[in-house]
Design goal:
single chain, Aminopeptidase N, 12 helices, aminopeptidase, 2 domains, mainly alpha, 222 residues, globular, hydrolase
Length: 222
């Protein structure tokens, strides 16, 4: 619903304005989680939004959202990379490929994030893609996340460990357990209880992630 509202708004606000660009970026973000998101994204990519400059960055973001919806494929992404075969394009391609739904996709991304030496840009792209899609696709990574937190903190640079710990903090939904009985909520609280002497900055990441999860679950119960 929100993506349709944003799509309609793009055609009535001032053309070529900062506001139009902001609305376009908001549309791309919202559409990734909307069952009706494909149509406005396709209109955007087809240049049907009057006055909107379709930059390579905006095109890649739209394609990543289509990937999250499962409404594009590797051939379309490869074709876009031929249009933008820059380092920025390679990073955007990695994000889009990581955005596809499915446990196998997320497993491949998780393995690369946790076992390979990555550049900051590639790590950020993979994390952004990993976070897309239903939390059920990432359910199997809840236990490994909490089991490996302190290891990442010891073995990675502060920047890389912080980005990874924050970026792949497990999500959940009310379908997987209500507030107070949710499995991810319990796992996060258990980690905090068992790791009172962990680095304060690492504990803060988990505390903030848990607080955000609890707010999300509470909102879903309304």
């Amino acid at each position: 619903m929100r993506s349709r509202t944003l799509s309609k708004g793009l055609s009535v606000i001032r053309l070529r304005s900062d506001q139009q660009r902001q609305w376009a970026n908001a549309l791309v973000r919202e559409a990734a989680d909307s069952p009706s998101g494909e149509s406005p994204l396709r209109d955007l990519l087809a240049g049907k939004v009057s006055g909107l400059e379709l930059t390579p960055t905006l095109r890649w973001r739209a394609l990543a959202s289509l990937a999250a919806l499962g409404k594009t494929d590797k051939s379309e992404l490869d074709a876009e990379y031929k249009r933008d075969s820059t380092m920025t394009g390679a990073t955007a391609l990695a994000r889009a490929e990581a955005s596809f739904p499915g446990v196998e996709v997320k497993r491949r991304v998780w393995d690369e994030l946790t076992t390979e030496s990555l550049t900051n840009d590639r790590q950020g792209a993979l994390i952004a893609g990993f976070a897309q899609g239903p939390s059920s696709d990432r359910k199997e990574f809840v236990a490994p996340y909490f089991a490996n937190l302190t290891k990442w903190w010891k073995e990675m640079t502060m920047t890389m460990a912080t980005r990874l710990a924050r970026g792949v903090f497990p999500g959940s939904s009310i379908e997987e357990g209500k507030l107070g009985s949710n499995a991810v909520e319990k796992a996060a609280q258990a980690w905090l209880d068992q790791n009172e002497n962990a680095a304060k900055s690492l504990r803060r990441i988990v505390i903030e992630g848990l607080a955000g999860l609890r707010r999300q679950l509470a909102a879903q119960e309304l």
